[in-house]
Structure formats: C-alpha cells, structure tokens
Give the backbone structure.
Amino acid sequence: MLDLRPIGYVIGLLVTVLGVTMLIPLTVDIWLGNGHWSVFLESAILTSLTGGVLALACANGVKAGLTLQQTFLLTTGVWLVLPVFGALPFLLGPPEARVVDAFFEAMSGLTTTGSTVFSGLDDLPAGILLWRSMMQWFGGVGIIVVAMVFLPELRVGGMQIFRSEAFDTDGKVLPRAAQIAARISVVYLTLTLVCYLSYIFVGMNSFDALNHALTTVSTGGFSSYDASFGTFQGPAEYVASVFMVLASLPFVRYVQLMAGHTGPILRDSQVRTFLILVAILVLVMTAYRVVVNDDHYEHAFREGLFNVTSIITGTGYASVDYQLWGAFPIVLFFFLGLVGGCAGSTCCSIKVFRFQLLFASIRAQIRTIHAPHGIFTPRYDGRPVSEDVLSSVMAFFVMFVVSLGVLSVLLGMTGLDFVTSVSGAATALANIGPGLGDVIGPAGNFADLNDTAKWLLSGAMLIGRLELLAVYAILTIQFWRN
C-alpha cells in the first residue's frame, strides 16, 4: 500500500516555511504604514498552522529514501498545494480577488510563468507586490532543485542524462535535495543580490530594484507596474538582459565554478549553444528594427536584446508592445518562447538540450539512410546517448505538441479566438508569460478571460513547469497499480 506520510511531511514543512515567509511582506506593510498588514498575519497563521499540523501528523513515516511513486506524487503535490496557500493574501486583502483569479496568480507566480490577472498594479499595497515577487523567487530556486534531483530520478523528458551532474549521496533523494538546495541557494542569493545592486546603480529605487531582482533571477517576469518593464527604459534593460541570461545557465555549473572548476561551464555544449542562439537572434532582430522599422541603432539593439532575452528565457517581461513591430517578430517570438534556456536553470519551456538531442538523432538517422550498413550513434557533449534518453526526449516532444493542440482546442471551446487560444496554451505550457493578440498580448493581461479558461491555464502551468510527463504519469491506472 502506498505510504503518503513522507509526502505529507515534506509538503507540510514547505507549507510551514511558506507561511513564515509571509511575515516579510507583513513587516514591509507595517514599515510603510499600510493598513493591510493584517492580511499577511492571518494568512501566515493559517498557512503555518496547517503546514505544521500536516508535518507533525506525518512525521512518524519519514524515511531517507522515497519510492518512485512517492517521488512522482511529491513533485506534483508541492506545486499543487503551495499555490493554494500562496493565494490567501490575494483573497483576504487587496486586490480581493476571486478564488479562480487568486489561484491563477499564485500558480503563475510559483511556476515562474509571469502571466497575471491583476490590473492596477501601480496602486496595490507594497506587501502584495512583494509577495508576488517572492513567490516567483521561491519557485525559481524550487524548480532548480526539482530539475537536479527529482526529474533525473523520474527519467522524465531525457533529464536522466544529467544524473551524473547531481551531487552523489548514495541515491537517497531527500538528503540529496537538501544538499543541492543548500549549495544552489548560495549562488541564487548571490545573483539576486548583485542584480538588486545593479538595478539601484542604474536608477531604480530600492523597492522596485528588490521586486525586479527577485523576478529577474527567477526568470519569472512579474513586475510592480502595469507597464511591466516599459517603466524602466534605458540602462535597466541591459541589466535585466544580463541577469536573465545568467539565470538561464545551469546552476550546477555555478556551484562548480565557486569550487574553482572553470572547465565544466566552458565545455558545456548547451551553454555554448544557448549563448550563440541568443546572440544571433539579437543581431537579427536589431537588423530588422533598423531596416524595416527605421529605428536607430542603440534603441533597436536594446529593445531587441531585452525582448529576445525575455521571451527565450521565459521571463516574460515586456518593455514595448512588440506586436506593433510587424509580422516577423510576432512569429519569431511565438516559436522562440518554445525553446527555453538550459536544463538545471530557472528557465522553462522545452529547453536547449532537447533540441540538441533531437537534431543529433535526426543527423544519425540521415547518415544511416546514406549508409544503411553503418552504425551511427547520436552523441551529446561528446558522449553516446542511450536509447532510453532518446526515447524520453521524443516522448516529451510528442506530448508537448499533443498537449498544446488539446489545450488550444479546449480554450477555443470556452469562446476564445484562435490567436488567444493557441498563444495562451503555448505560454502556459512553456511558462512564458505574455501571449499574443489584443487580450493576452504584451500590452494586455489575462483578467478578461473566462473562468474555465483560467482554470485550464492554471493546470497547464503546473503541467508545463514539471515537464509534462511527471504529472501525466500519476493520472494513469498503471501508476496506482504499481
């Protein structure tokens, strides 16, 4: 019989920690004289008590290792339960959101998607704005740990290829999670602090710098203004672009770098591919803006750099409505958002390494057609890739396309137009942020969508953040039989 106590214990601890962190925006509201601090006090008490009771009730079932079933359930359960409690401040205080809107916003925050249903951000209390940013920051470091610990163990989407990159602790999932989280948190905190100081250096006030540092390093994209990053034209866009790129690289490489090992990050093929891809796309977009839109060089480069980086990393900041640039940028950005950054980063979407494996497999197949008696093995980073990894990657691609199609149809059935349905499905599954069109485009938000569409998109954010198959697996009869 499946023992749920280890799962309940971990989730209970995380819920308790989430409740304690609500004291930070509470303190900010008190410091600024906002009368809404009681909302966070109520939310913190309810969240911490619930999490504490759950952890205590399940403490007698804690083990060092988890079964495969328990690991699947824990991975999905954490990202399903935490948004429920993260939504409480939105329900109890400004903006006094409805349940569907509060849950959508919390899920978008913790999955670092960045889509929002809130308008009038400029007038919301500082505590609420900070809480939105904090949720994305928590989600960013959380997904790194999931990518380094749980997904390789679950053999999801080819992530098992990175098993050797993790820190060895005799195959015990929970101790390894704690160890990796501790080491990565140091890097994560350092990047956030440097980003914060950089934003202040280019002219942001302290509160804006903190909010945007939290959502930049997490590649989340929540802003404290309705105009998103359009409020900060100029040097701040360069700062954001640099840190979005840094957050898109594998954090395990930073840990190795801090230990004095520079070789791994320099030799990492997905890092090189990602950086080259960004550089080429920025140059292409800059040239397009200069030639077609008659923009001047610096502005064309800055807006091209910022928006290309924001979309490919899944951050989802918008400095301008790039839909006004013409058809080419719209099509480019749609497909660009499906690429993503490197595995083991805060980025989302399909990720670079899967495209590398896909092309390596295609190349091997073409060579086999040319020389039927030859044996050609796809390679990644100079190493042969096992059939198991290739099958997982191909399954991921197939399920992503199928999920995108089914979700688009379901959204269309709720009354949304074609562009909104398809781009909404893509931005939720790939955790990008803005969609396309007049409703959910970079100049709009998701507030006007119907409730059914919001629930569907909330579920899609969860599925996409956990690499699809980690969620789909627990919906099968075989999973529960085994």
